[in-house]
Amino acid sequence: MGLRHNQQIGAFQGAARVPSGIIRGGIGVFQNTPGAQLPSQAMSSTGLASGVQQITCVGSAAPTPDWAAYEASAANIPTTCAGGGGSTFATGVPNVSMFDPDYAAQRSIRSTLQWSRPILDNRLMMSLTGTYSLNQNQTGFVDLNLNPTVRFTLPDEGNRPVFVQDTSIVQTTGAVATNDGRVSALFIT
Predict the structure, then answer these.
(1) Residue 155: pLDDT above 70?
(2) Is 58 helix (H, G, I), strand (E, B) or coil?
(3) CA dist 55 to 12, 91, 106, 169, Å?
(4) pLDDT digits 0-9 by tens, 13-52
(5) In b/e form, how buried is each residue of 157-168, taking b as 16+ CB within 10 angstroms?
(6) Total H helices, total E strands in the chain
(7) Contacts of 27 (CB under 8 A, 6+ apart)
(8) pTM of the predicted model, to two decimals?
(9) pLDDT at residue 4, as a whole number
(10) C-alpha to C-alpha distance for 107 and 138, rounded to whole angstroms
(11) What are the phi and psi torsion angles at 98 (to 5°)?
């Protein structure tokens, strides 16, 4: 929308006359479609015997890798942790993923308003733009099986909370035993 015409450009006569100010604006709704990996993860991580299963072995429970044997045959890949999995650092429980009943695809409502006008005797154009975006239904993950009891904090890291016992942390690597910080030891997430 032009408000009124500005004077001609001072550099030469006959140049196009531009409006003294221009206002532009728009508004729109932009929506994503959910990626195929979201429902496929929930379909494969059911917690049932037919769903995805995994073993987690950290620290002393981790088997010593034999890469040549693994390459020779997939049957040589370990299916239990070292020592049979009876350690704090071993677990073989299934993953569980699910959707909140209120799940909806991501979307945002965006609006833009721009004002521009010539300056310095029409030699330059100055613009001021404002954008507003209302983001809705942003995807997030919540671990419903996390036990929120703080076992201790790390003072050197701003008192960051730790949700497992210190005996459930491999001292040499910082790896954490997955079962200790869980509400139910029957599932990972």
Answers:
(1) yes
(2) coil
(3) 78, 6, 33, 17
(4) 656 666 788 899 999 999 988 778 888 888 888 888 788 7
(5) eeeeebbbeeeb
(6) 2, 7
(7) 109, 110, 111, 112
(8) 0.57
(9) 55
(10) 8
(11) -150, 165
